[in-house]
Amino acid sequence: MIWNFGQLPENWTMEKLSKSKHPSIPFNPDIANAFFRCGYIETWGRGYSKMTTQCLSAGLPIPLYYYDMSGFWVVFRKDVINEEDLRDKILNERQIKAVLYVKEKGKITNKEYQELNNVISRTALRDLDDLIFKEIFKRNGEGKNVFYIISLS
């Protein structure tokens, strides 16, 4: 977590900051200019998008940004899709293997789950339903076109 005592420019919201291009309006232009001249920043107004891009390129969740009267917060999060964190969620070995599979491949079907873990359809469905209940997977599609994706962030 990084906190800075400061404020957003007048009429700015977190949504405007995150969803649209915006001008840079440093709270203290003299300090911003000094950091620019020293090479600590390459340009103004790109911090939000650069942090998000860098996290995504490193395979990490996008940072969370908060603003309240006490200042501005940026929260960097680790990749929560790893064996240690999955074990903490009380998943069995088959489920952990499936989550890591989906992390790599993007989705999994019941048939793929069965093949990956050498189990019958009923066991696969029970495990997959448990992953949905624990809000780790989300079901997409209908009937024979059902597949599962990760819903964690």
Written overview of the protein:
By secondary structure, the protein is α+β, with helices and mostly antiparallel strands. It has two domains: 74 residues, Heat Shock Protein 90 (2-Layer Sandwich); 68 residues, Orthogonal Bundle (Arc Repressor Mutant, subunit A). Helix content is 44%, strand content 14%. It is built from seven helices and five strands, in the order E-H-H-H-E-E-H-H-H-H-E-E. The strands form two sheets. A three-stranded antiparallel sheet has the order 1-3-2, with no helix packed on it. The chain has a two-stranded antiparallel sheet with strand order 4-5. Helix 6 crosses helix 7. The two termini are 17 Å apart. The mean pLDDT is 86.
Q: Which keywords apply here?
A:
153 residues, alpha+beta, Heat Shock Protein 90, Arc Repressor Mutant, subunit A, 2 domains, two-stranded antiparallel sheet, 44% helix
Give me a quick take on this structure.
The protein is α+β, with helices and mostly antiparallel strands and 153 residues long.
Provide the fold topology.
Layout: E1 2-4, H1 14-19, H2 29-38, H3 47-57, E2 64-68, E3 71-75, H4 83-88, H5 93-105, H6 110-117, H7 121-133, E4 137-140, E5 147-150
Helix pairs in contact: 6-7
